[in-house]
Structures are given as structure tokens and as C-alpha cells.
Amino acid sequence: MRVVIAEDNALLREGLVLLLRSSGHEVAGVAATGPEILPLLLDQRPDAAVLDVRMPPDFRDEGLRAALAAREQLPGLPVLVLSQYVEETYAAELLGGGARGVGYLLKDRVGRVDEFLDALGRVADGGTALDPEVVTELMSRRRRDDPLAALTPREREVLHLMAEGHDNATIARSLVVTERSVHKHIGNVFTKLELPPSDSGHRRVRAVLAYLNA
Hints:
Layout: E1 2-6, H1 10-22, E2 26-31, H2 34-44, E3 48-52, H3 62-73, E4 79-83, H4 88-96, E5 102-106, H5 113-124, E6 128-130, H6 132-145, H7 153-163, H8 168-175, H9 179-192, H10 203-213
Parallel strand pairs: 1-2, 1-3, 3-4, 4-5, 5-6
Helix pairs in contact: 2-3, 7-9, 7-10, 8-9
Keywords: DNA-binding, Phosphoprotein, Transcription, Transcription regulation
Organism: Streptomyces pakalii
Domain Response regulatory: 2-122
């Protein structure tokens, strides 16, 4: 496998080079700064790229931007991104372009040689390799971004009928439950959507708006 490495930390970079070569892979090129990455990838067209997220000169998202740009010009280029810690926005953006041939690992996984090589192999084969902590953070983000995610199926049904303009009695008849149960479900909806009792005059409307927006 021909691999391009982009990592500004010289010790880690050389360690990756040594690890890959000793495992029978070819290191097609190395980059130590953000601006070097894309030209190197376009020139070498490797089987896979291992990139740090934050690279010089600004140590922001140079590695990620290069990965996204490379995948636009080289569709399907397998990319394994390394990061010091979970950066939700970057991980979501990379995966948002299509998860095929994409990996996102925390750097401490590199020290677990077998795990790292296995992840790289899966990515190169078009699969995915996501650090467990990345998965946890992305799922948490998804739950935070979706205000309805915490609702039970029954609470969603109640909210759906509320959105259609039905009163509690009609909702109770539709679901074949008591009005008391409907009142309880609506209270749970208000709580989970963080609509305070002080806003009682508008909570029903705001709950419906949240449902429609979602």
C-alpha cells in the first residue's frame, strides 16, 4: 500500500514512517505543513492518506481542509485522520462527505500498532474506522442537535396530533388513552423540549414549532 503522511510533529511523523515501512507499506511522501498536503496527494495519488487535523501554519484545520479538497479532486481517496482529541465539527464535516474510505482516530491509537494498522487497512479498502470516543461524541452531538431525540414514540405521536391542531380530548380518543395520560405525555414533551412552566401560555405553540422545524 502506498501511503502519504501529513504530520507536523517530527517524532510522530518519523514513527509513522518507520511503522508503515516495517509493516510492508510504501511511504509515498510526507508533509509537515498544511500547504504541502494537497499538492503532494494530487502528485502521488496514494492508496491512502494519514493526516493530522491541525497543521502549520495556523494549527486550525489545515489537515482536514486538505483531506476534503483531495477527496473532491480524487473521489474515493481513503483518508485516515488523526487528532489529539475529539473535534466534533471536523469529524462531522469529514463524515458528512460520505463515510466510505474514511477514518478518524485519536492519536493515542497510533501507539496500539495492531489497531492502527487494522484501521488503516479498513479505510484503504473503502471501509470506515472511527475511534469509539469519536462515535460517542457524534451521537451526543446528534442528540443535542435534534430537540425531539429524547421523546418516546408515544410522546412523538401526541406532539404530532398537537401539530395537527387537536385538543387533548381528541388526542385521547385518537390514541385510545385517557385525557390524563395525554396531559402527562404533553408535560413530558414540555420538559424534554425545555419549555418552562412560566411560558405556559405559549408552550403548546412552541412545542409544535419545534416539531415542525425538526
